[in-house]
Amino acid sequence: MRRIKTNGRAHRKLAGVDNPAVAPLAMPLLAGPGALATPLVVAEQAAGVPMFLLLCSGAALVFGSTYLFFVWADELFSCIGGQGMKIVTRIMRLLLAFIAIQFVVDGIKGAGLW
After folding, report:
1. DSSP letter at 32?
2. N or C: which end of the chain has fewer CB within 10 A?
3. What is the pLDDT of residue 47?
4. At what angle do helices 73-110 and 48-71 cross, to 10 degrees?
5. Which residues are CB-contacts of 39 (< 8 A; sequence separation ≥ 6)?
6. At what angle do helices 48-71 and 33-45 cross, to 10 degrees?
7. DSSP letter string, 77-106
8. In the chain, where are the structural domains located?
9. What pLDDT sits at residue 44?
């Protein structure tokens, strides 16, 4: 009966999940197989040192912006509020669905079925 009466925040505290950045949806996109394999494939296709340095600077920009978003997550949440966070979450879900659909379409095209 006690578990039924707890709200989401109390349940997250009991589970030790206080950081909204650590979510099942966020972690695979940041450190999953696609995030690890993509730089390797792009680095192999880089023609020469200038292109490789451009790739490294782009990766550093992505890492830096991700770090800043994680550091300022509480401030961003307080600015947009709970309703704003729901809107952002829905937009991100839609974006993730678009990415998944694109993966399927690319796989079908790569297999020569379309």
Report:
1. S
2. N
3. 83
4. 140
5. 55, 59
6. 160
7. HHHHHHHHHHHHHHHHHHHHHHHHHHHHHH
8. 33-71, 81-114
9. 84
